[in-house]
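Narrative progress, year one. The postdoctoral researcher (J.K.) led the effort to move from monomer predictions toward full complexes, under supervision of the PI. The following entry was the first complex the group processed end to end, covering 228 residues in total.
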Amino acid sequence: DTGVSQNPRHKITKRGQNVTFRCDPISEHNRLYWYRQTLGQGPEFLTYFQNEAQLEKSRLLSDRFSAERPKGSFSTLEIQRTEQGDSAMYLCASSSQGNNEQFFGPGTRLTVL
Amino acid sequence: DAKTTQPTSMDCAEGRAANLPCNHSTISGNEYVYWYRQIHSQGPQYIIHGLKNNETNEMASLIITEDRKSSTLILPHATLRDTAVYYCIVRPANAGGTSYGKLTFGQGTILTVHP
């Protein structure tokens, strides 16, 4: 399968712990996006990379959140000092230059106890 | 980005056409209309997009009114596997006429296809 992959698929953690998620985009895609989705809501944009450059960050991305894409390929999203309100599905998507379509991964479901 | 308004839920009989409306009365001239859908426990999936003209692909047809203030997504022969949340999104075009950057999702329409 050459689609967008995300790991882990599920993560349960205790409040105050740090978590890190990984996204592997489709190999030739230079754009990578992170979204967050809570139950019953549509996905909300968090941040976006073009190659290794982080071009846009939502104000939802507090200082406890950091995203990286060091070599312009895979990306990581880290949440420090998790809170119960961070419980959500974290979705990654990728797209190629000149292509309007974003391809989404299956998401990482985070539960903060 | 312009705001979109969609019905919360719709039902459709299997084999019939599903017509999903979307209002985007504040759309501006350089903004495209996109449709995505999200099947339970999966990431969103692109369906179709358009600017002014009606569009058709293997999944659906998109009808945009002449004033561009509303659109309708048509699934011509709905199947049980089309049960999903359908999102209508307005997205600005960038230089060169493509769109990249964030998608702004609303709450979408829950389409339930019945046998």
